[in-house]
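Render this sequence as a predicted structure.
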Amino acid sequence: MAAKVANKVRAVGICGSLRKESYTRMALKVALHGAEEAGAEAQLIDLRDYQLVFCDGGDRGGELPKDVVRLYDEVRHAQGILLATPEYHGGYSGVLKNALDLMGFDEFEGKMIGLVGVSGGNMGAFDALSALRSVGRALHAWVVPEQAAVANVDEVFDDRGECKDEAIERRLKAVGRQVAKFASLHNSEQAREFLQFWEAAAENPGGGNT
């Protein structure tokens, strides 16, 4: 049985696929179930349900479309974020790229991120996940070590969206559990005290030349 997180946290999973019968969504649901098993409150953010504008590089001033504001709010109030994508031409999906470009530090800085990728081929989605790991660093988020790249994904899930491969199911759940666990630790009272102490410390407590 998975250990539950000490502090209740909220984890959201952003599905970077618009297909109706999306393997990405199936894999993400398994990962979110892992977060729930660890004691987190989990929510699937299905970008099919959001009418998002294209990011034009402008600021957030002025009136924003309601679904953009909804996306901001849902991600901002989470402590853990799962990003799930199919691999397209060696990268992650355009719809996920646009959603990420619409957001920024307000939504991601200091958060825990877990990565899930699926591919129809036997190479998995490592290039897509590597690119998302770089995005996480750029947004000052913490990308957990565990990730799940599901190769030959059409052979992994049945018609009901159930995972047929126990090893892959365990790996997907492990991503969700790590996000929940580290988000809980990061938001604990002890962690906040440590961060306050660290930020208040002298810039170079050792002093002198080495």
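Summary. The beta strands are 10-15, 41-46, 80-86, 112-118, 142-150. Residues 10-200 form a domain with the Rossmann fold fold (CATH 3.40.50.360).
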